[in-house]
Amino acid sequence: MPIITVDDYPIAYAEAGSGESLLLIHGTLGDQRSFGPQMEAFAAKYHVMSLSMRHAWPGDWSEGGDFTIDRHVEDVAGFIRALKAGPVRLLGHSRGGHIAFRVAERHPELVKALVLAEPGGELDESLGGAPVGGKQAAGFSAAAQKIEAGDIDGGLTVVAEQTGGPGAWERRPEERKTVNRDNARTLLGQMNEQRKPYSRAAAEAVRAPTLLIRGEISEPQFGRIVEALAKHMPDTQRAVVPQATHGLNHDNPEAFNREVLAFLAAH
């Protein structure tokens, strides 16, 4: 698989297609395989690259202090610069949506258009507070404890139900479970990722045209984040993927791909 080295770390990625660059950033417990249902469709129009973030499969995580949002933001920025192809279209899902948001906020010259698929995180007081962030953080912490103790599927069940509701792990296809199992220990690193909440000032600083996309039957906290960001980001569109939970790019890939490609075609 291809690799681009950023700050002495090999960032592995999957790629397909040709033309202008479209980067895909996965979420918690994911890797470059998380966008399997998108690669062929997106490759028909773009040079699409799905990144495995630092320490995600095919790498791993061991004790260390570099599994943070800030580290991953700088990795994406360094990856884009290494392409030497100018600003890119950038899509992030869940935690990857938070990373993509921060790249656009801090490095506006690198982002031509932005897609945030149910970006993860919390809202600060300027955006109405963090209504359920504490609950999710507690759930992820409990999951990490199970994983550290060797109960991999038990920990992954907790995470799946935090983001997808009761029974989410049992409903998950085996190929997605494999990706999550391969990245289970990254959750131990994520517990200290130093993720800052979204603020009104940060939202207003993102100048790239942005599509905010959510699942029709996703957990309420993701809709609250989408609505708060849409209210204050200068140039946004919103879309809803029918019959989709937080894993919207897998639950209804045809509708997800259609919404994303229509937005990108206009930008």
TrEMBL record:
Record domain AB hydrolase-1: where: 22-253
Alphabetical UniProt keywords: Hydrolase
Gene Ontology molecular function terms on file: hydrolase activity
Naturally occurring in which organism (per UniProt): Roseococcus pinisoli
Native organism taxonomy: Bacteria, Pseudomonadati, Pseudomonadota, Alphaproteobacteria, Acetobacterales
Family matches, as InterPro entries: AB_hydrolase_1, AB_hydrolase_fold, AB_hydrolase_sf
Keyword Cell inner membrane set for record: no
Entry superkingdom: Bacteria
Name recorded for this polypeptide: Alpha/beta hydrolase
Keyword match ATP-binding: no
Pfam families xref list: Abhydrolase_1
